[in-house]
Amino acid sequence: MPVLLPLLSFQAILLNYSTRGVSYRLAFLYASLWWGVLLTVATELLSLPHLLNQISLSSFWGIVAITAFMLLDHSKISLPFHSFDIRYAAVFLPLGLIVAGTFLISIISPPNTWDSMTYHMGRVVHWIQNQSVAHYPTNIIRQLYFAPWAEFAIMHLQILSGGGDYFANLVQWFAMCGSLVGATLIAEELGASRSQQLLTAVIAATIPMGILQSSSTQNDYVASFWLVCFIYFGLRLLKERETRLAIPTGAALGLAILTKGTAYIYALPFVLWFLASIITDLRQLLKYTFIIGSIFLTLNSGHYLRNTALWGNPLAADIDHVQTTRRDLPAVLSNLSRNLVSNTWTSSQPLNMLQFDAISRLHTILGIDASDPATSLNGAPFVPFTLSLHEDLAGNGLHSLLILSSLPLLLFGSRNRTSSPARLYCLTLLSSFVLFSLLLKWNPWITRLQLPGFVLCAPLVSIAIPAHRPWVARIIMALVTFAAIPWLFYNESRPLLGEWSIIGADRNALYFATNRGLLDYYDQAASLIANSKDCSAVGVYGDVDAYEYPLWVLVRSRAGKVPRIEHINVENISGTIPLKDFTPCMQIKLHQTL
After folding, report:
1. Were 388 and a residue from 279, 311, 393, 589 both cysteine, which residue would form a disulfide, CB within 3.0 to 4.6 Å?
2. 566 forms bridges with which residues in the sheet?
3. How many CA atoms lie within 13 A of 161 on its CB side?
4. pLDDT digits (tens, 9 = 90+) for 240-267
């Protein structure tokens, strides 16, 4: 089965590192980075002659797998758990539950969140149809200018599996697993003991937003993973000053930026820290900057060039609306407070009103409207929310309290207990949160964008716990594990239990789990297309948030294949891109809601 070839390639690369004396955790990061780089290179190169098809991708991954296995020293292969310590068995129970549970959800449920139906998966099917990632006319303009790496990976799996999306959610799931591994390595670099590293993994695994996103085709967990890799190898580079470490550092930074724009914000303070640490050695500074910068730019060059050709700049002009237009102290404090409270809404309405009133009074003191359009996306009103089990709105309340409780211990505690790198790491990460609040407008879905920050905070929480008080770590581990149960089993988009359980449910209906009112309309539209035997070109139109992907899926399930589908009546700048040999014999309106 061709879809197994990327997995075999990853496994072969991982084994090559592990047989050369590299720990399995570190080998996992190296293999992931090489895999990510190879996928990017293959995508960009095969896209130019429009050869993104099953034959080309199978050949590519087959060559990678064969080459990696040929380079492998088979006599040195060993099991990763040959030195497993039974004392830590209890720690792996919550990790196993979450990893296995989210894997099950990823396989059973198709992608079905709002952004997935509009642009994440929508761009994938257009690329597959075009056999290229070149820009194309679309009413859903986000399909073009947003960073594409996560969707590159989904596209490879979708093409190699024959067009189905059974493996699409596994990109985020894999990123979650990688983030847990990487977070423990960061903790180790910051001086954490083995038990603290295991606690780091549990804290990272039980982040509510992380649990929800790990079984979806959003991209925040993928960005989190590459940022974790970047920061880990950056820390290693600072300590060891070896040029070879600049290569994975640059690759991880490049892949993070190629995955999501928020990576710029999280990475910038760490870039400045790393540069400031070697600024006294001009030769090293120039060498590392050149290596990291070259790799970063090379990986992003294809996407940058496509955006520049259409918009005149690599980031595209349409992202301006998400940036704050007021950046004074009251504006930053406004966003900081709202970003924090967005994580702490509870199921108790009186408690939520107390929080809302406190934030409202703060804004009165600051002299700024809590729904100021200069700091709020589309002037979104700041109103009391409640506890959510949806991946667009879920907060990370318990983890927020753990992080806030850890900060004084890390910054003002005993220097014998907290290493200098841990303090610098803490301050740098806090700078990322401030920069986040300075640059991005608050919106009701802001917690989704905060996932990388929570993953990166996990090592800090474990390090802040005194080593001579292991009972504290056990209590925290039990609390976060127990608290994670609702998000694991009752994911609002993909619940394992309850009335809308995905187990045994009709897969086509699950695409509309977050917008069930659209199912009948799209079902009728798909049937109309499938029954029109002589129609091989369908034009679609709608607004910027229209559901597109389910139409492709339903048509394919009914007709066995999909006719050529292109956007028509495109009034944004992508409408200037010419469509060759396309005359639609049918027009379908895409809807957002009915």
Report:
1. 393
2. 539
3. 15
4. 999 999 999 999 999 999 999 999 999 9
